[in-house]
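step 4 of 6: structure.
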Amino acid sequence: MHNRLGRQTVALERPSVILSHAAVGGRQEGDGPLSDYFDHLCEDSFFGEKTWEKAESAMQKMALSRALEKAALTPEELDYILAGDLLNQCIGTSFGLRDFGIPFYGLYGACSTMGESLALASLLIAGGFARRAGAMTSSHFCTAERQYRMPVPYGSQRTPTAQWTATAAGCVILGAEGDGPRITTVTCGKIVDKGIADANNMGAAMAPAAYDTLSAHFAATHTGPQDYDLVLTGDLGVLGRQIVEDFFARDGVDMSENYQDCGVLLYDIQKQDMHAGASGCGCSASVLCGYLLRRMAEGHLKKILFAPTGALLSPTSSFQGESIPSICHALTIQTSD
Amino acid sequence: MHNRLGRQTVALERPSVILSHAAVGGRQEGDGPLSDYFDHLCEDSFFGEKTWEKAESAMQKMALSRALEKAALTPEELDYILAGDLLNQCIGTSFGLRDFGIPFYGLYGACSTMGESLALASLLIAGGFARRAGAMTSSHFCTAERQYRMPVPYGSQRTPTAQWTATAAGCVILGAEGDGPRITTVTCGKIVDKGIADANNMGAAMAPAAYDTLSAHFAATHTGPQDYDLVLTGDLGVLGRQIVEDFFARDGVDMSENYQDCGVLLYDIQKQDMHAGASGCGCSASVLCGYLLRRMAEGHLKKILFAPTGALLSPTSSFQGESIPSICHALTIQTSD
């Protein structure tokens, strides 16, 4: 029996091991400060395909293929893959995975998908149901713009609170045994909706969910930010990150030392004119699968709390006057101590 | 360690128990032959809400509330809920679950979602990560029509192979212990795409996935259709069901005795003019949560193989000339023997 800590957190007695990881990005990601950490960067936003949706599938194919290659595994050696994306009906994933023949559980967690896929893959392995499983997600600036907002060629002006959807994919291969950082706790998020209805201010909508899940995790594990080399939210951007810091400050918890947000890290926000920062499933996925896991491998980070955030809205729900329900899933990832 | 049978099937040493179940439906479902098995039927397609999307969320709220009530549980007593739907970004689910405060993993499995949610919820319980978990999904004819095809008021003519999206929701509450039918095996599907590109013939697109998963399940468990009181696919309809029978006939397996499809059962196809039958996440969900589980409780069925099917397309993928990737997840559900 695994250790359930409170209602949302499981401490894994059999932690899953990160056997390999791969990050794929586009031009903007290649122009950013984390450029060197990507496995593959493509100048062409179509990734050699005819449409951006097919490009997004191509990114998932690349990320999975590269991660399998780095772990010296074939698709047949994966027991499951858990994946999803932002597109209507998650077609980035279904078409990306179509030719691999891997048992598949499709997820929808918006930009929290990297956290959700790692959480469920870890639980499947820890439960003894899989020897190896993949966790993957993607987003694409051009597919997201035309689906959620306006077609890119319209040249719509963006508000200062808007974030830039990352054109990126990340894939992690987890195993029941092997060498690599281990996932030791999994905290499942609840839907949190504080009434923010501005679809151009995702950071404000998702920050309460991040605060809710991180608070639950800290309480359940009797830890605080000081117990991690880095606490990382998914894609709150500049504004959402500040809100999370403010919420914790009210509780007397100082997040200023070692808390960061993937949406703040991915781009040089000023120089690249990214307004409030990066967003999209591919943001936290590629920051994890590129930068963070490399920093762990190099010994700079030993224990991190990775907490991707997702906004569970659709254009239809916004048109119908709804606010934005959000969610955040958190995982402790640590190197052998 | 649980018993992995082949690559796709897990035999659960700690089967999860179905503590309760609830089915909600609309007018057409109330006019059909399974009418008496629903917990709640609503004549108003808006379910008292202002839009059909909000109506779909209302159906999920009703199904979950009713299932909790029947199990004498509060939302706080559920460790997880796993759910999804057909709407863009699964808003039927996120808005339906928003006020319950239950740790949530969002799924996208198209019409296979009842199978996927039961599979993952069973594995979480069997792995010792949850004492109780919910599995839920929904679909709504009017939300699906305007999202996938045409707004209902256009009065588009439907092709003979078209199916009618069920306006229905189903919810199952699973527990680690208690009385009720048990889920004893879980078979995870792979994406199968045989090149069918006609979005008005979902049965043909999904039948190969059903055949693939059922075959894998039969091989892994050394069983055949004769070992079940009923083998049920999700929503293949009249045509898809026939294709599955034909595929198995080629292997020398006779499915004619005890194989049925939820899409054939839900409506009186001739009288209600439902063309090829029912479809939608709510089809297999409500047939399970209404008819099938009641038939099990009454002792008419002791062991069934429940295999919901999903078509992982979107209108965009069809517009871009893509064929239809499909998936099917299967579960053995049996009463104590």
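step 5 of 6: annotate
 - Chain A is about 35% helix and 25% strand.
 - The longest helix of chain A spans residues 202-221.
step 6 of 6: archive
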